[in-house]
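Here is the promised in-class demo. Please do not try to memorize the tokens; focus on the logic of going from shape to residues.
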């Protein structure tokens, strides 16, 4: 039986768009910070050394990810206890405070140390909110999906995030064409954050119209579970959570490498103009938007693990050689070509991985388990990817290919997780699952209503 309320496919698609709306805003803000890290470094973290200031700015970008595990436990538990809709509204409210705060924070020259402190506080709030935002949307989409199309439905959580990358890139292109570099460093970097602040009321209104999922309503018909029972179930599922962390590692590193880090890498390491770097970032967002739902759709046909294993293996084998080729003769064409290849592999993996997490987690802790696994991987690997890449390049005397080595390592971790899922048969198939799906170790119609 479908887990959606009686109604048309149009109504289901409308709920998909509503659920993803706040997720788009969250990722827009994260992406914009990465795009303008160098400008924020000069305004908020002036040290007299551009490299040190940039590392501090990227470190602040990463600090927000350290709050994700805490947000995952608190907000994920809230979603499993109070409902998907209520949790999504709460996470959006917390995130909004951080968005506005960064947009209006005074400069270091105006208020001294209070300026970086406020930015760090804003990033902590955003990280806390993001700890359950993506997972909450993914779980919601999984629970309203129709049989046989769960991969496609859930993929729109990630596909929607690519709209934020494209939007941030378009804003960056507009600023590059209208403002001088000095103006962008002085105040222009605030414009994208103000744009995000202005759409907040609309996103709140959209989120408020979401219906609760029938899957959650059935599980709580005899009373909502208390926090103790949710966390007891989470601890009992620790092996699944660890495997899920491994699965998320690749996507957490790869996303920020090919999006948020792209403008800084293009300008600092390849010597490209800011306009060229933003154009590449925007095209990567478009490419991701295409490949992610296609991968989700394909995973509904052939199973999850073939795509997970195949794409992770290709990333491990090709990332460093591609980066070596890029830095050997930097150009707009080479950068675009390499990142579009990465985008294809990222889309194939991400479009499959997210739905796999919703199917791995037991129903009682689906939001909490997903959120904890996702946030731990983001905190350990993804959030500090720009910082690590910058430091690796500097430590190796300017070897601009080092980000490819970092990416290859992440791919190996996720490859191990995908192999464990396949061999361990961790996804329980529906009774009517086809033989080919069950044999893949990741049945596309794995039960999710439990």
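The designed amino acids, position by position:
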């Amino acid at each position: 039986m479908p887990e959606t309320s009686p109604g048309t496919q149009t109504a289901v698609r409308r709920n998909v768009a509503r659920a993803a709306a706040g997720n788009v805003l969250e990722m827009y803000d994260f992406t914009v910070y990465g795009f303008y890290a160098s400008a924020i470094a000069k305004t908020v973290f002036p040290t007299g050394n551009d490299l040190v200031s940039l590392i501090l700015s990227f470190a602040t970008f990463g600090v927000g990810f350290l709050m994700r595990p805490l947000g995952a436990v608190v907000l994920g538990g809230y979603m499993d206890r109070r409902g998907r809709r209520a949790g999504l509204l709460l996470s959006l409210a917390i995130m909004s405070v951080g968005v506005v705060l960064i947009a209006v924070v005074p400069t270091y020259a105006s208020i001294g140390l209070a300026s970086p402190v406020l930015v760090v506080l804003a990033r902590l709030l955003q990280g806390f909110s993001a700890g359950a935002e993506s997972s909450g949307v993914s779980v919601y989409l999984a629970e309203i999906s129709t049989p046989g199309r769960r991969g496609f439905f859930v993929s729109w959580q990630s596909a929607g995030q690519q709209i934020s990358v494209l939007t941030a890139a378009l804003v960056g292109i507009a600023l590059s064409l209208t403002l001088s570099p000095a103006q962008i460093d002085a105040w222009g970097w605030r414009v994208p954050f103000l744009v995000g602040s202005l759409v907040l009321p609309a996103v709140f209104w959209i989120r408020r119209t979401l219906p609760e999922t029938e899957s959650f309503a059935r599980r709580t018909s005899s009373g909502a579970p208390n926090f103790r029972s949710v966390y007891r179930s989470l601890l009992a599922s620790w092996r699944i959570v660890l495997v899920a962390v491994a699965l998320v590692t690749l996507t957490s590193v790869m996303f920020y490498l090919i999006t948020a880090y792209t403008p800084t890498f293009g300008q600092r390491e390849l010597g490209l103009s800011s306009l060229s770097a933003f154009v590449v970032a925007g095209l990567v967002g478009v490419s991701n938007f295409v490949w992610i739902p296609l991968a989700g759709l394909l995973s509904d046909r052939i199973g999850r693990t073939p795509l997970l294993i195949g794409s992770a293996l290709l990333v491990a084998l090709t990332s460093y050689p591609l980066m070596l080729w890029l830095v050997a003769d930097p150009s707009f064409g080479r950068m675009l070509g390499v990142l579009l290849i990465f985008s294809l592999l990222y889309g194939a993996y991400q479009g499959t991985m997210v739905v796999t997490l919703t199917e791995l987690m037991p129903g009682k802790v689906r939001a909490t388990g997903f959120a904890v696994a996702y946030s731990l991987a983001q905190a350990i690997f993804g959030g500090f990817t720009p910082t690590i890449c910058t430091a690796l390049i500097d430590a190796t005397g300017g070897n601009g290919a080092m980000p490819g080595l970092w990416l290859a390592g992440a791919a190996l971790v996720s490859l191990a997780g995908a192999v464990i899922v396949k061999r361990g048969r961790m996804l329980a198939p529906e009774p009517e699952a086809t033989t080919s799906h069950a044999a893949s170790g990741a049945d596309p119609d794995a039960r999710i209503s439990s």
